[in-house]
Design goal:
binds adenosine-5'-diphosphate; alpha/beta; Macro_dom; 5 helices; about 170 residues
Length: about 170
């Protein structure tokens, strides 16, 4: 059984095997979680992302997919980059958000990661409503068979923490 846990804080400070990055499809960095990971992890992560772009993702990493790199100077061993969907009121993109969680867990399992930290993917610049994102994230992780032993949701502020706490308890 995978244990779901919750902490308030920064994804960059987590003592886990892998941290999930809410990346953008360019893989070349951005704000929010992405910016924090690159800032703290150092240039090795960006170099690995550039290599991935050159070798596999010339058109960018598609939304809902996930790929791993080194974690550079972070405590974690790997960063698993995934691209969340931008919230849309007119189109149901929840399967893409679920896919981010499933694919990140699949990659984590392949790496042999036993502990994985997730941010609240798509709830920042991509504007996904927090309650709905928390529902999709927790339901998907619970429904995905994986060798990962702990999935830790890392929430940056009180409100996000409370919303996830209502789901994990
Ligand atoms: P997205 O583009 O997928 O919306 P963001 O990085 O903009 O991703 O935001 C995702 C969520 O992560 C937001 O709820 C934001 O408040 C939160 N966040 C921002 N910085 C950090 C951090 N260092 N650690 C964990 N969560 C963070």
């Amino acid at each position: 059984m995978t244990e779901l846990t919750l902490v308030k804080g920064s994804i960059t400070e987590q003592d886990v095997d892998a941290v999930v990055n809410a990346a953008n499809s360019s893989l070349l960095g951005g704000g929010g979680v992405d910016g924090a990971i690159h800032r703290q992890g150092g240039p090795e992560i960006l170099a690995a992302c550039r290599d991935l772009r050159a070798s596999h993702y010339g058109k960018g990493l598609p939304t809902g997919e996930a790929v791993a790199t080194t974690a550079g100077r972070l405590t974690a061993r790997w960063v698993i980059h995934t691209v969340g969907p931008v919230w849309s009121a007119s189109e149901d993109r929840s399967q893409l958000l679920a896919s981010c969680h499933r694919e990140a867990l699949r990659v984590a399992g392949e790496l042999g990661a036993r502990t994985v930290a997730f941010p609240a993917i798509s709830t920042g610049v991509y504007r996904w409503p927090l309650e709905d994102a928390a529902r999709i994230a927790t339901e998907t992780v619970r429904a995905t068979p994986t060798s990962v032993e702990e999935v830790r949701f890392v929430l940056f502020d009180d409100r996000a923490y409370e919303v996830f706490a209502a789901r994990i308890g």
